[in-house]
Predict the structure.
Amino acid sequence: MNGSLQGKTALVTGGARRVGAAIARRLHAAGANVMLHYRDSAADADALAAELNTLRAKSASTVKAELLAPIAPRALVSAALESFGRLDLLINNASAFFPVALGAIEPSHWEELIGSNLRAPLFISQEAAPHLAKGEGAIVNIVDIHAERPLKGYSVYSIAKAGLAALTRSLALELAPQVRVNGVAPGAIAWPEDGQFDPEERRRILRTTPLGRVGSPEDIAQAVHFLACAPYVTGQILAVDGGRSIFL
């Protein structure tokens, strides 16, 4: 497998921070131009674009969009085409993640979780597909191990990611042979910044992870890079979870 992405363009949703930023850096280091989508993290997006453009001039740009807005898919794809003239890789990374107890689920919770984790990837992929096909490109969706094994208290989120897993396999059929579609399913990668998991829950997660440690955003980025370049892999979801999904 040739890991070079020289001359390619990648669109990374939620690309300004954390896992998204690690993915953008990894693809950029492999030679790709990157379009960084963000919603609220303008300062982070601008700083990352500046960092990447220092390494290689005019190789990174940013686009602001609310993914639940109907115009977002076209706006994102158009921004990539206007900046770089082509689109070869789509990384559906942006995601809402929060718990909602059964009995307290409101339509707004459903809209945000399903919207960001499933609806947006579908419509962005649909908009991008004709352009990806021109260069036999690829889509990589960031799924979750809890798509297969639901996380208690996070039923709507788990449903959304299960839908994204199904979307990944469905699009692999629909877009073949011109476009490959795969997914990466993270386990415990960089704890949530809002303290959703208390110290005891974090210890429990580590006890149920065979490798005994939390992964890093770079672990996800490495898997995305592999799938972006693997010419005979499509319709697959790669767990990057320290083995936790075989223990649960």
Summary: Residues 107-134 form the longest helix (28 residues). The radius of gyration is 17 Å. The chain has a mean pLDDT of 96. The CA atoms of residues 206 and 212 lie 5 Å apart.
